[in-house]
# Entry
Amino acid sequence: MTALVANAGPSRWWRSRTMRRFTSHHLALLGVVMITLLTLACVFGPHLLPYDSLYIDLRARFSPPLTGYHYLGTDPLGRDVAARLLMAGRTSLLVAFSAMLLSTMIGTLVGVIAGYRGGWIGAALMRTVDGFLSFPSIFLLLALAAALKPSPAMVTVIVAVTSWMEVARIVEAEVRSLREREFVLAGRMLGLSGAHIMFREILPNAMGPIIVAATLTVAHAILLEAYISFLGYGIQPPLPSWGNMLEGAQQYLDSAPWLAIIPGAAITIAVTSFNFIGDGLRDALDVRDDRV
Amino acid sequence: MTERSNTKSNYSRRDALRLMAIGGAAGLIAPNLLGKPAFAQNPPASPTGRVVVGLSQEPTVFNPLMPHIEADEAVHFSVFDALVRMDPKGVLQPNLVVEVPNQKNGGISEDGLVWRIRLRDDVRWHDGKPFTAEDVKFTLELITNPKFRAWRTAGHSLVRDIKVVSPTELTWRMEEAFAPYQSFLAETFMVPKHILEKEADPNAAAFNQAPVGTGPFKWAQRVAGDHIELVANADYAGEGPYLERLVFKYIPDMTVLYTQFKSGDIDLVDQAFITADHYAEASQLSDRVVKLEPGASVESIYLNLEKPQFKDPAVRQALYAAIDRKAILEALYYGVHKPTETFMPQNSYYYNPNLPAQEFNLERAGQILDEAGWVPGADGIRVKDGVRLSFANSTTSGNHLREQTQQFLQQTFAEIGVEMTISNLPAAVMWGDFWLKSQYESAISGVTNVIAGDPDVSNRLHTKAIVAKGGKGSNTGQYSNPEVDALLEKGARTFDREQRRAIYLRVQEIVRQDLPFLPLFAYTNVFGRKEGLEGFEPNSNTRVASWHAAGWHWKA
Amino acid sequence: MRGFLLNRLSQSLILLLIVSVIGFLVLNLLPGGPLAQFGLDPGMTQDDLERLKEQLGLNRPLLIQYFDWAWRLLQGDWGHSFRDGAPVLAVIGRHVPATLLLMGTSTAIAIAIGTWIGIRGATHRYSVFDYMATVGAMVALSIPTFWFGLVGIYIFSLQLGWLPAGNMYTIGDGSVLNYLHHLIMPSIVLSLVHVAIWSRYMRTATLDAISQDFVKTARAKGLSERRVIMKHVVGNALLPMITLAGVQLPSILTGALVTETVFTWPGMGRLFLDSLGYSDYPVVMGLLMFSAILVILGNLIADIAVAIVDPRIRLG
# Structure
């Protein structure tokens, strides 16, 4: 009982202090503002633009930015780049966010079990994590992309499956250090089940590092989606994503450089924002600086 | 009917003219020729200079009898010789033989079963050993050696009882008459018996990494992942070489390939060539010769005819009418490629130029579907007997020009109530079982249907070539037409050029009518080379531009 | 120490086993396979493809293929490439120098610049420089490498024409200058991320060192600030960097992969992508094992370095 109270008490206090620290982190606030603006643009922007992202008009192909109402120009099929960029943002952000949820869940589950159980189960799980980390990530990405039909859901799975290990490691270390703490021992003496202790008692106390890792995973996931779609194995046309907008852009680098520059800039802005937020959260949540 | 008989008379007149021209030329050139190009202007007395050829795939297989890709053949043609050579006009010329065996000169018996080959007596391997009939026997036997990982065995598997009559003469028997084998020999490079017979495992022979041939260039060195360097073979039996060094440079990116051509780092662009979108700019470059040359491949939409959507000929006709080919070719492909109605390369002797031309007409397409009973459902997609007119289209992922074509087609097809989705796969997946065992619904593919210039397309169109139905071949669209089958069988047994031509012209007519696949265009390759590089000749009967580097030289 | 090594060795073997099993399974269960490249070859019949499958041993049960491969590996036989028939180790060995050159150069750049930024950031904490370095590092880590490479090519090759768009050298020109000219862009692109990482770590390590007692003592002895920093702080901060270098060792293969692709650099990353594209199983497996061994070595180096630096940590 005391454990539960002790658990709930500090949690409320942590919240306010965290908020105060986070809001004093200028870069993190900048990140939040940029992501909010980007999300709003992606949600409402396409309705405000005069062109549909899928409308093909070969007569207008390769119009440079600021041609008529094509604010960001057109692509090789004469589609409006601005409309595609915002629709692509929906896809890319959704995929990255879902992949983050999925990989955080996998990573947390593996990490909590490995850290709490320890012993051979823990060792087996953590060696599997090491095994996954020993693969060049591009191998797993391409192999999975070849095996699965490349729908947005599958791309989400592919990205998640190749990025859960970091979370698992962080959570495992955290849980292992919490395992012998008083509130856990108390829970055990009260006869609470292993699952209850793992997920109701320990996990809430390990939330800080998980949140930070999750934020950084969003950034990572955006980059991964971009890379596999850039190679043509990710999101399939005509559905735009930031990555597949870059596909083929290399070919037109000389004649239509905006095709490469615009989506790349969008990716960089989104990823930077999430990294800023992650950094702010790390400071605010007092998480040790293990990653950069 | 009238139209057809008209075209027939046309053919025969033109045929006669063409035959005279070819026969005459062959007669004149044959005796003294080892592939001497008629236009070689003042080549240097001794090999000088260097040519760097850019390839977008890396040559890695140097034993020409082992499984390889196009890029490897650039090296094979320079290091090795075959018995015969297919010239740019599609006529066989002697290479290691004294004369091309045929039924008229007695090289092939009347029934097509006994072959007699007479070899040149002045050919030597790069290590100085003489080339003899024993080497030919060894080569042909190695191909069918079950322990050896051979490339194509079609035709070779029919060869029996190879007998060496003298160092310059040998004979063999064919299990059955097979006319395409004449052409296949043009892609069968001879390997040295005295080196390979000593190897316990020919698959892992040192020879495979440092080949020894009879060709105009000798192996010098390979920097893996980067380039291959060859040096002139001063003792080459044939004409040339005029270059001291020949380098094949691997540049995996098409844009970089072009950039390097532009900057002058490479002298000639081979396999995969200059991309269509760079053609306009490339042709303006000074000191560069950039030309469009017809290729052998045809880009088509392949339909899996066993899918219920495609069984109805009306659907295939309607889809064909709904392709805005002009827009695709002019806008997406910069007007480089040419429209075509057939699988046959346009400069092939067997090409049928009189097929009805496709016309883009959405109204007509809709009408065809209406008449055939395909009516739009609630979602606007046509339905007939419970079958929705909806299908997936696949091709190699990352091929963005094809992806653009797909998206463009998707939009036009939607206008006639046809739904096409895009589902692309990595090359290694796409062209594996997915393609070979007809697991796709529809696919866009650029296919070379002829082998070494021979018109036999049984492998693509014969019923027995459907793997999904237990056949052996690559008729992946599962096309089956008894009349075509009969014609193809007859064509493979027929050695006479004119008779064969009539057969394959008819095959093309039927296939155009049946539309088992929808032809998009015939590939035209953008060849580029530095000005002053002379003796270069394109040849659509070979898979690489470097089929005859022996004749290349720099203008003095 | 011996106990530690034995323990490490057994763990490493288990790791290699896991990697080889997963790698082999994933690779072989992919649709397509090494013969797909001949799917469009007009002259290859189904007979030919099936014959090749048998000759390559690909029609055997997967388990037998795996044990055959593993057994040969234990005897030192890494197999032969399906493509050029050369031994796998030779194939890998041919591509190592190009990657080492690229990685070496960019690591040198990263260490030089990263260390300087890190130390300056730490000694001028919360200055404008420090702030800019922090932001810069985070932005650098957020730029997609392949895109950064493309932008570089656009500006410096296509627009300005200063630098080559790809390749390691011009054919026929083997001069050092020519190599350097080709090295500039890929090594800078590749070092971007590493500069960011190194500068962040160096900053933290320097801050840690500054707060230590011996630095205070050195200051108390009246040494100039510059000497204190150069001699005591940097010396102590650099040691943990070895750990980082160890952890980064595996990225020799993967780190350069994207850069090698964009700049058509003939290294291991290109080899990996090409081999994967052609489903050249023996070479891909060889590279996977190679990369796993690098991971193990890297971690080992890191651990030993930590133990040397910090006597409180005992190996064992």
